[in-house]
């Protein structure tokens, strides 16, 4: 069984999730398409890098990502760093002939994402963007129902991603609140997951009409330690503040090329919401509803149900549903965030081994960046924005 050596750039929260997936994938999906071998991990200094290697199970560590990208022993480069570093690392990795998996969002905007897409296409390497939420079995089941025509022609999509972790105005000015590093706020951080759902389940988006808001215009400058999520904590009560230049919340209407309509919204300022990632899809013959906080469940309603039994009912994912053969043997036994990363790793390594295309890939990442750019443009101009025009403006 082929072994593929992984060089992972970044050892924080997402590094932990990806490392778990590399270790667990062959246990869940056996025989594995290839064995992920945790070869080298990179972090910003020797102390952090050495600790990451010991903690995440890598044989080696480094402090310069270029050393790993140019190492002939490395087969796969895994990018789990802040958004502003994705393009440089990915383009260099492509030129070095490495397969690449990159955390979302792919880039700071569509122009940068296009450069990344052109680099991987020129190199002929496999490429993936880590929108792992679409690997949740209930979401894949919704996709199956739609493709089978179980709900008929899709009429509308409603998607949300609501969190509350930044609702506290005293939470620090991490890189996620700085445009030069993050590109955007709630839009890029969590809203792109909903955009990925919309494209995956319904189809391409053609037009956007959006509103964005920044509810907390300044935050304390970071001076404290690092918490378990990798966020630097502010220190003291008299910490100076600096401006937030990204969105805290957005709401957008969308039109799809197949005639469907919809809404997408995301916020990190919704008290009481932890990871409220949802979609509701209405079709001519039925409806589907999913809430990631109840990730083993898909709510379904079919128009041809008898009148005395009509309404939403729960389908619990398990062995009979997508990816069920590799996960737990009892429906509703429960999966977690880690399992979605394991499934993602399985599909990506299968694509590498079999020479097939993985999705979502850098082309999907580029399309999502076009949509994100259009959302920001629409909010700024206060009008509908056409995606074809947005794409035509990208250099």
UniProtKB/TrEMBL annotation:
Highest taxon of the lineage: Bacteria
Stretches assigned to the GFO/IDH/MocA-like oxidoreductase domain: 140-288
Keyword Manganese: no
Keyword Transmembrane: no
GO molecular function terms listed in the Swiss-Prot or TrEMBL record: nucleotide binding; oxidoreductase activity
Limits of the Gfo/Idh/MocA-like oxidoreductase N-terminal domain: 4-130
InterPro entries: Gfo/Idh/MocA-like_OxRdtase_N, Gfo/Idh/MocA_oxidrdct_glycsds, GFO_IDH_MocA-like_dom, NAD(P)-bd_dom_sf
Keywords: Oxidoreductase
Name of the protein in its database record: Putative dehydrogenase
Lineage: Bacteria, Bacillati, Bacillota, Bacilli, Bacillales
